[in-house]
Amino acid sequence: MKLGEIYRLALQMGMEKDPRGKEEVRRILEENRKRYERLPEKEKAYFDLETLENPYPDSRILLGDSEQEVRVAVAGIDMEVGEVLLADRLREKGEPIDLIISHHPEGVALVNLNKVMPLQADEWHRYGVPINVGEVLIDKRMQEVYRAFLPRNHERALDAARLLGFAYMTMHTVADNQVHDYLNRYFEERKPRTVGEVVDLLLEIPEYQASARNQAGPTVIVGSRERRAGKVMVDMTGGTEGPREVLEKLAEAGVGTIVAMHLSEKHREEAEKHKINVVIAGHVVSDSLGLNLILDRLEERGVRIIPMSGLVRVSRRGGKGSP
Q1: DSSP code at position 223
Q2: 212: part of which helix (H) or strand (E)?
Q3: Residue 7 in contact with residue 63, Cβ under 8 Å?
């Protein structure tokens, strides 16, 4: 596959599984176009043109020619300088690696992480939180995330990849949309009655089985296995952790259990305060599930994948690996 084909496939898959729906995604792209057209000419040079066709600023090609052929890619959750050097060492040993695929964003994709977060307000609205309330809450949290990532050394890993001649791309929200959709459909079909059944259902999925064997499997951090789950909300996409204030609104809307990748201690305390059960499925392993669903499609097209950096690689090609 060409690098541009990989990018377009990942983007298409991300939009197909976007919880907001295709119409809302198209509206966002149209708003980006209008915003660009309204800018003074001197400001257009600094506009992120990628956002005219890509609604996920944290998922993109960061290095490489879109016409470049990709035969072998290394893929992992965090592909930083150490992983870039490891890829180069593998290449020295004979692996013809063309591309580095990172789940977590680097470079401009990391600077722009906050811009994918409005997705969360739409998802809360689907569970009963008024959209006007959700948008106010997420706006404040977006600014916090922007300020947190702004001072980072964003180009560090990319500089290493550039010097060593690798193409580099990130698949963040495009992959998170995959696991979000996968688990939503899974729980809707299986209808767990208790919090313990939520955990047991996760443990039927190969990625979570692997994390459990490493003592990092799904766990209940608020509530108990015996409590009834009620309405189960999967919280697996939208950039990063949302505002803790929304937990009160979700409780009022009738959410009984949240299944999340991770949760800060302050968020955990807030969930406990509002009697919401919380199951932590696992961060890296949930990222792995989402990324795997895209990597399967690349392998089908002839790209060989070498997993590293925490990626729990499970293939579902031919029906394998499904719960």
Answers
A1: S
A2: helix 206-213
A3: no
Q: Tokens at residue 75, please?
A: 């893929």
pLDDT of residue 264: 95
Containing H/E element for 258? strand 255-260
Residue 77, classed as helix, strand or coil, is: coil
Cα torsion 105, 97, 48, 19 to 10°: value is -50
Residue 242 CB contacts under 8 Å (≥ 6 apart), including other chains: 117, 120, 137, 138, 141, 235
CA 228 to chain centre: 28
Beta bridge mates, 101: 75, 169
Question: Beta strand pairing status for 60-63 and 72-76?
Answer: unpaired
Using a 10 angstrom Cβ sphere, with 0-12 exposed, 13-18 middle and 19 or more buried, the burial of residue 320 is: exposed
What string of DSSP letters covers 20-54? T-HHHHHHHHHHHHHHHHHS-HHHHTTS-GGGGT-
pLDDT exceeds cutoff 80 at 322: no
Strands 277-280 and 219-222: antiparallel
Task: Write out the H or E segment, with its range, that includes residue 260.
Answer: strand 255-260
| Spatial contact of 149 and 273, defined as CB atoms under 8 Å apart | no
- Average pLDDT (232-244) is 95
The two tokens of residue 311 are 């990626």
The strand order across the sheet containing 99-102 reads 60-63, 167-170, 99-102, 72-76, 304-307
More confident: 323 or 220: 220
Phi, psi angle pair for 148, to nearest 5°: -70, -40
Give all domains of the chain, ordered by start, each with its CATH number: 3-172+286-309 (3.40.1390.30), 179-282 (3.40.1390.30)
Phi, psi for residue 79 in degrees, rounded to 5 = -105, 85
| pTM for the predicted model, two decimal places | 0.95
**What pLDDT sits at residue 321?**
60
3-state secondary structure of 203: coil
Mean pLDDT across 31-40: 96
